[in-house]
Amino acid sequence: MQHTLEVRAFFFNAKTDYLPYYKNFSMTLNEDDKIDAILAKIQAANDNFAYPDEKLIFKINDLLVTAEVTVGSVVAKLGTELQVDPALSYRSNHCLIMDDSDFMERFELLAPYANDEEKAYYESLYALHYASETFKFSHDYIGDAVLMLAHKMIENGSEHKEAILEAIADQYDGLAACEYENNLFNEVECGKEIEALNAMVYPPVKKNPLRDNKFMKDVTEKFSKDALHPFEKTSIKGVNVACYAGDSSLLEETHAKITGNGGNVIDFPRSTKLAGATLIGKQDNLAYLKAATTLLNALDTGAELLVVAKESDIEMFNKHFASIQKRIGREIPLPIISNKAFSALCDTAEVA
């Protein structure tokens, strides 16, 4: 089977260009073709386009693909309108060819304690390193790959456990900056390993359930009744409503409720991306940046009301709203309510 693709490709040459730009291409490829066939077609049409011969990784529609991915699998997941970018655009030297010296520089953090097998394991994580969502917010982040290596070395019983943990514990760019989320096309789950490292470096504080439950109730009620930008309408009919869920499993139900009550669903790119809640207390500045980016993304996409599915996120947005706006240097005039408050609003409108 063949697929006709509309491709928007990233161009940049550090020697001649001040800023990157994009060009559009149309092409037809077989579904069994490897993904680099797209790049070859672009290069055949424009010899200014460049991509690496070895260690090929790049992004399609913000997901990082590797050489073994096929055209058919990309179309099945992303459709036929595709955007091609470097793995990290700010490290591009020439189109998809980038300066990847940072990858082995990060290994040097643990090199004194690693054997040849562990070094080889790290080198196998090349794509994982560049797929980290954290790089969008912190260019100096040490990377998920070195964290995975640290976990493996400790699991292997390294006698250098304390030194390994110290090496990855930089308060700005180390483990503290990791809210684990990667953009690999073929997903790899590393959350458990990151959680284990966090437990070693940041031992959990024992919670008081009675106090925490009361606090969350107070936060939810305050946020619903006394928001900085309250939603003053009594129904959502005709209103552009977005849902921030943090993960896709929580979106469908809310979207159905929006349309069922006459509202317009607003999809925005960061609706299922993490917004910094787990970074509070470790890397607050980064947490505020991620939260502000998420809220502005919803607002700038056209949302007039944002429904937040998870209590941990509504708590963070409410408690730190002033800091979030200060971090981005811009007011965020977007009414935000919890999923519980949104359901109550819909129920009230139905009764009326």
Description of the structure:
It is built from 14 helices and 11 strands. The strands form 3 sheets. Strands 2-1-5-3-4 form a 5-stranded mixed β-sheet. The radius of gyration is 23 Å and the shape is globular. The chain is 41% helix and 15% strand. The chain has 352 residues and is α/β, with parallel strands linked by helices.
Give a summary of the structure in a few sentences.
The chain contains 14 helices and eleven strands.
Write the layout of secondary structure elements.
Layout: E1 2-11, E2 21-30, H1 36-45, E3 57-60, E4 63-66, H2 71-78, E5 81-85, E6 92-94, E7 97-98, H3 101-107, H4 116-123, H5 126-130, H6 144-155, H7 161-168, H8 191-201, H9 209-225, E8 240-244, H10 251-260, E9 264-266, H11 284-300, E10 305-308, H12 311-319, H13 321-328, E11 336-338, H14 339-351
Parallel strand pairs: 1-5, 8-9, 8-10, 10-11
Antiparallel strand pairs: 1-2, 3-4, 3-5, 6-7
Helix pairs in contact: 4-6, 6-7, 6-8, 9-12, 11-13
Nearest-integer average pLDDT: 89
Strand content: 15-25%
**Strand ordering within the main sheet:** 2-1-5-3-4
- Specify the number of helices: 14
CATH topology of the largest domain: Rossmann fold
Rg of Cα set: 23 Å
Portion of residues within helices: 40-55%
Oligomer: single chain
Structural class: alpha/beta
Major sheet attributes: 5 strands, mixed
Instruction: Output the CATH class name of the largest domain.
Output: Alpha Beta
